[in-house]
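pinned: reference chain
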Amino acid sequence: MNVNAPAVAATVTQTPEFTPYTAAQTSAWAKQNAADNAKYISDFLGFPVSPRLPFVLLQAARDVCAAATDPKKFITRLCQRGDHYVNCIKVLATAIVHYDLAANLVATRDPRGALQRCENDLFTARLGMAPRTVDNVIASLKEAGLYLSFEQREHTKEGHRGRASIKRLNIGLFNWLGLGREASIQRANAKQRQDIKKVTKTPTDAALDSYRV
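pinned: its C-alpha cells
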C-alpha cells in the first residue's frame, strides 16, 4: 500500500429527484400548448381556430398541417401533385377542427348551439377554395379512407329529397398520428357530458327543443 498516494475523495453522483408537475403547472402548460397549436393551425389555414377545442383535435390538426411541408410525416399517400396534396391537407385539417367528438360528425353549430351537418361549401367558405377544387379534394380523401360521407334522403309528402350527408373522420387517422388513445378517451368523455346534459334538461328545455325540431 502506497501511504504517500494522495487521498481521492469519493464522488457520488446523485440523480435529481423527480418532482411531478402540480395541477396549476399542468393546467398552465395545457393552455399554452393549446394556444400555440391554435395559432399554428390558424396561420396555416387562414381562419381563426379556437384554442378551447379539445386537445386531441388541436394536436391532430397541427400534425396534419405540419405534414404539408413533409409528406413523409403522413402515413398514407394522398396524391402525387404538390398543389393538390396541400389542398388535401388543408381540407382534412379543417374537417378535424370542425369535428364533434360526441356526435362523431364533421359539423358546425347554429347560433343556438345546435349541431348542424356541414356541406362541402364549409371548406369553400373557410379556405377560399373553388367548389370544384373542394370536390376533387374530398374525392381524394375519401379514396384514401380518411374522410367518410354517407348520403341520406328524407321522405316527404312530395316524395324524397336529399339531406346533408353524414360526414365523419376515419378514427384510424388519430391512430396514425399517435393519438388513438387520447381520441378514444376524449370521445368517451364528450359523449358522457352530452348524455348528462340530456338527462339534466328541465321540462322547459325539453319543450323548447321539441318546438325547435
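why pinned: Helices lie at 23-45, 55-66, 82-97, 121-127, 131-143, 172-176, 180-199, 203-212. The chain has eight helices and five strands.
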